Prior knowledge:
Blueprint: H1 5-18, H2 24-31, H3 38-44, H4 54-59, H5 85-98, H6 103-112, H7 114-118, H8 131-152, H9 170-184, H10 193-204, H11 208-218, H12 230-239, H13 244-255, H14 268-273, E1 277-281, E2 288-290, E3 295-299, E4 301-304, H15 308-321, H16 326-337, H17 341-349, E5 353-355, H18 360-371, H19 382-402, H20 407-414, E6 427-429
Helix pairs in contact: 5-8, 6-8, 6-10, 8-9, 8-10, 10-11, 16-18, 16-19, 17-18
Amino acid sequence: MGSSSENHEKFSIRNLLVADFLTLEILNKILNWEHGDPYSHDLKHNNRIRDIPLDMKERNPRAYVPRYVSMGPNHYGEPQLDGMQVDKMRALRHFVKRGPLPVEAYLEALMKVATPCWESYGQLDEQWEDENRFVLLMLIDGVFLLEFLSVTRGNQNNSDYATTDPTFGPEGHNLIYEAIMQDLLMVENQIPYLVLSTLLSISEGLPEQSIHSILSWMMFAPNIGPGIHFLDMYLKGLLAEGQRAEVEEEQDWEEDQQQLHRIENIAASKLYKRGVRFARVKSYKKITFDKNTATLTLATIHITKQNISKMLNMIAFERREGSSKDLNSYINLVDLLIQSPKDVNLLRSEGIIVNSSSSDQAVMDLIKEITKVAVGGVSDSRSNLVREEIIEYYQRGATKLSRRLPYKLFSRLSSQRHFLKYKPCMNINVK
């Protein structure tokens, strides 16, 4: 398909490796001296739809496999996803009939961007070398995603669906929303942002900047973008406070460098005894530690029974694409604060951890499990800076206390290192 010799080379390499490659002829084909490393190309065009890191997939393989709907070629044709194909075709029918142009106009526009969209994926099955087949897939899946997000955001243009529609009607949509969103936010279940912007530009006939504004709003990331795909935009919105609308909807629905230093002995409950008070903020970017008032402000951790997969996929995506690893750092920071169920209970009472059904022990166990796959971020990330400030505060308090103790007790205390852990606001699933 298209003009990418590097991607074609990856197809041939994969096929050759299945066979016996212990011959000089095959070895030369695999090494292909005429081409550079295709992954060096990725560094210049960081728009890949990545694979899940193996260590994460081995720990919890089911978390990364869609259960209801496929997006793009990676999971196309899997039996458990066949049922949603009917809804995809219905979405396409509504989308095209509602717009000013026939379906051929959308196909023609997608054909013009087919090569960069195709190159967004790594190694695809040979069936996707057929450009027409690939473009049809992008059309069908892209329209479904646009329609689903449009209904989610309450766009009145979607009133042409029956109120009893099981997927796009108000009642049916509310029932399946969480399950479908889990699938739409999986790392390997994405379609390029370019597909969505192309489709929307044809249907709306608006300038490029207006299209980006609409898409950023639909993807819970106002005034952010363009991005790589839906998961990319969703994560950016979460970290930049762009997702508050969806978090509020979920609350209504519920109720209506290297791995960070592991620091033992410091926890939320111990900080509380040292005079630290906790307050919640709406955004990750607003977490702070005020030394003058000893107030630690943290973003809300919204916990539901549906969101473990979403969390793991966002962590996986950031590990592949993110430069700062903000979400990963945030996870580690929360982990540092929670060393026992009573720490969970304290943060719960302050509205920082929100959970309607699971025990404090279950929440703590889940956070510890999630932390196993998170990596450390850059040293000047918000989470790491706050972490260092808290450590300094705690150690300064320990020094003042030790001066009032007998020499032997002081010696024992000063030989121990005291550190802290803290974590961010996001949606977590407790089973």
